[in-house]
Input
Amino acid sequence: MKKLDGMGEDELIARLVALVPTGEAVAGPGDDCAVVDDGGADLVLLKTDALVEGVHFLNEADPRQVGWKAVARVVSDFAAMGGFPERFLVTLALPGSTSVEWVEHFYRGMGTCFDRYGVVLVGGETCRVPEGSSAVISISATGRVERGSVVTRSGGNVGDAIWVTGKLGGSLKGKHLVFTPRLEEARWLVEYFKPTAMMDLSDGIARDLPRLAKASGCGFLIDRAAIPLSEGCDLRQALEDGEDFELLFTLPDSPELLVQWQHKFPELKLTKIGRLMEMGAGDRLSGGWDHFGLL
Amino acid sequence: MKKLDGMGEDELIARLVALVPTGEAVAGPGDDCAVVDDGGADLVLLKTDALVEGVHFLNEADPRQVGWKAVARVVSDFAAMGGFPERFLVTLALPGSTSVEWVEHFYRGMGTCFDRYGVVLVGGETCRVPEGSSAVISISATGRVERGSVVTRSGGNVGDAIWVTGKLGGSLKGKHLVFTPRLEEARWLVEYFKPTAMMDLSDGIARDLPRLAKASGCGFLIDRAAIPLSEGCDLRQALEDGEDFELLFTLPDSPELLVQWQHKFPELKLTKIGRLMEMGAGDRLSGGWDHFGLL
Output
């Protein structure tokens, strides 16, 4: 009998969504958020995400940082669509031996991120997992994006330049707990330059760039020497570590972009790392993080 | 250091919500759904809920029934507010040794419930828990309720009759996996009789009725002989088993209600079990299900 181990996350999702009614979402499963048209002035964005103890954070991690991370990951997904989050729900599945202090610090960490991005918690659920089971934290959120601003993974065109914010790799040295979602940057991009495709880097560029290219019906060519490395990281780590939560986006070549970016965000690197090609042409990348796949 | 074990869920939630920004929700934490006013024609309802293997379902349970239950619990929460669900998100945190077949059957079970209630799945997340950890399933949903139809737990008044649908107790004999959320019934009630307070019975009437009464600033008196017992159940089981997912609601005495109910829903029992009293007067109930409390 086939097990989840050894099956890629993308393949699994494709098999599962065929089994349920999914309605007429504007962006399908596989994008950073679900996009729904309610007929209102804006489109509605919906997202669910989970953190597992021992996978996304260690037992000894600072619960305030875990709380920050749990919310910031989701904020990053809304940024990747060109939109913004508004309301959050949290589910904590915890062993009964968890200290109340841990949970309170976790909430304080979430609260810091809620305040930073002007969002609110509207509901939650706390339930018990058997002793010895990993804690699971599930965060869901709703938000919006203007109809003219929504960016999916599938709009990239052959010839578009591929850009990435920040520096990549080294997430496990602690960055994955304290990163800054690029919400302001993404909002600026959709207002002034309108990327053709965009996503946030959660599983490493080696896994995420092929996803974006495939969704856009393209191949890609990257300039390995241009990949911005985090301090102390080599190229492999930059490509495969995952949890960078930087923006990866495509755009027809624009001489203005870098100039205006550096003026607006002088402290955050923006790097052109390659371009989209005809499907089948260009590079192949493998590696990166897959929840169930064989790495 | 204080542990979650021994702390009541209600007390825990009250401590936690004080630590984060919660905005101006119409109904606060502790109600069946969060209610948000977006300025639209209807109010927005949001809900998150979780199932834990070994707590809410056993490893050997039929995954199709688990999928049904996961969705039906949430449908029941929307019914309890007088509203209806529209869009669902699902997070599965599973060991890698889980069979793909199990997950597919789980999705089919969800799909049956989605079809039954005319709702759709718009997003999901699948992640791995360490081997030996319990599976955790988290379901979130958005929905709506007309401004004139929303019912919370807090609107009950002294003298209101207390009603309950169906029969209570015996959930562990299998009912908890195959129950029918009372969505149609709740929608009929808010249209024709407008309950003053309503909730669904998830933790047993012994725990849930005191919650409704407290939220309404009332006490309560119940007629133990009137409690509708599931076949083979005694009063204690009916009061404490939990997971009945029947509607509990209050309403000024109305001779018309039972007559019209029996005409509209001839196969579903409706029983007056008592009335709301001045706070401090009447009965006390204890027992029922608490995720962390000492039972």
In short: Chain B has a mean pLDDT of 92. Residues 66 and 255 of chain B are 39 Å apart (CA to CA). The helical segments of chain B are 9-17, 63-80, 100-117, 175-178, 183-192, 205-215, 235-240, 255-264.
